[in-house]
Design brief:
Layout: H1 5-17, H2 20-27, H3 31-45, E1 50-53, E2 56-59, H4 61-85, E3 94-99, H5 105-115, E4 120-125, H6 128-136, E5 142-146, E6 154-162, E7 164-168, E8 179-180, H7 182-185, E9 191-193, H8 198-209, E10 218-220, H9 223-231, E11 237-240, E12 251-255, E13 262-269, H10 275-287
Parallel strand pairs: 3-4, 3-5, 8-12, 9-10
Antiparallel strand pairs: 1-2, 5-13, 6-13, 7-11, 7-12
InterPro entries: LysR_HTH_N, LysR_subst-bd, WH-like_DNA-bd_sf, WH_DNA-bd_sf
Family: Belongs to the LysR transcriptional regulatory family.
Domain HTH lysR-type: 3-60
Amino acid sequence: MALTSSRVRAVNAVFETGSFAAAARRLGVSQPAVAQLVRDLEAEFAVALFDRHGQSLIATPLCRRLYAATSRMQAIEADALAILQQRDELTGGELRIGLGNAMPGMALIAAFRNLYPKIQINIEIGSWSAIMAAVVDQRVDVAVLPEVPQDNRFRREPCVQQRVVAICHPVHDLSRESRVSIAGLMQYPLVFRTRDSATQRAVDRAFRAVNLRASPAIIVNTREGMLEAVANRLGVGFVWEHGSSRIDRIAKVAIAEIEAESPEYIFSLAGKRGKLVELFYLARSLSRPADGTDILAAP
């Protein structure tokens, strides 16, 4: 069964104008063509979308529900088309982006650059608290972070779901396991981040939930420091599952007590507007390949 865009446009135009003739004028096609598209859809799904009263068409309750859903799709399609049509006009400008994790932010930036290669990108990478401050102080225009608070100051849109996992060197005993418990982690030297890290807060919550207190062997203040410590066999560390595309000398292991995924957000100040900021919010949906592959999926 085909719910094609042409059928949707015809139904929505009739819904909004009240007749086949008016819908045809809006769409720039013939009246019989509009009527046929609507009738074909009704016949294929064995539904009634309009009640005929003389020259007027009254939408059925089913049609109203269909319109509520598909009108949003049409609005997104129209926005995307307008953005793509402006592509050649975007020959300059600068977008400042803050990243807590290298990924998924770098994947979003790559998608944005594929669409708008002439825009200069300035990237600030830091801890969760540093990037939050960069947004509030307007040192960056838009950022990508987990655990963005639901606050009227911010506009936020989820871009990927992920959870914190343990990481170790590929020859470490833990690398042979698909899952480890918090209690099981206690037998290994642990590498923690500083408390201004969203990763570390998630790890601390997991330890508290099972009434265990860990004494880390090493505390580092950056994600790169965490990755290097683990790659050099200094202990077991923790990262967001899709937080890095790095795969050399790193093995990821799920943590039994951290099953739930959390959203990572694209976010900015609520009043922060501008074409480039809006384009970055749209970057993921506009760049998704035709085969449906998720550009943010971890390697």
